[in-house]
Specification:
Elements: E1 4-9, H1 16-31, E2 35-40, H2 64-74, E3 76-80, H3 81-86, E4 98-101, H4 103-110, E5 115-119
Parallel strand pairs: 1-2, 1-5, 2-3, 3-4
Helix pairs in contact: 1-2
Length: 120
């Protein structure tokens, strides 16, 4: 099994099942002791802001705020630099524990030894 899991989430409320799956996999991996780095890109970028996860609902899915809290508590959550800029989101706007970083950092993480990358 990979020692690190890098997940890139491109979907938000526009594709709720894909969005929920990515957060669920990230939270389960954290709970399993895997080092997790979850990247929010595209419409998922909005979940880096306070209160946005609470607005998300999907029947028969774990509450997104709970999954998000799990990732923040035991993993790393990153907002894409360009995605943030396109939405006029700044470092002062995001949840505590969220970093803003670009493609270079994503590639570096994804290409690490014993790393598995997934894109949702």
């Amino acid at each position: 099994m990979a020692k690190k899991l890098v997940i890139k989430l491109t979907a938000g409320a526009d594709a709720p099942e894909r969005c929920s799956q990515a957060f669920t996999v990230a939270a389960v991996a954290v709970a399993s002791g895997v080092e997790v780095s979850l990247w929010l890109t595209g419409e998922a970028s909005w979940f880096a802001l306070p209160g946005r996860a609470a607005e998300f609902a999907l029947p028969h899915a774990a509450p997104l705020p709970d999954l998000l809290d799990s990732v923040l508590a035991g993993g790393r959550l990153t907002l894409c630099t360009q995605c943030a800029a396109r939405r006029e989101i700044t470092a002062g706007d995001v949840l505590d524990g969220v970093r803003i970083a670009g493609a270079q950092v994503f590639v570096q993480e994804a290409m690490g030894e014993e790393t598995q990358a997934l894109v949702y």
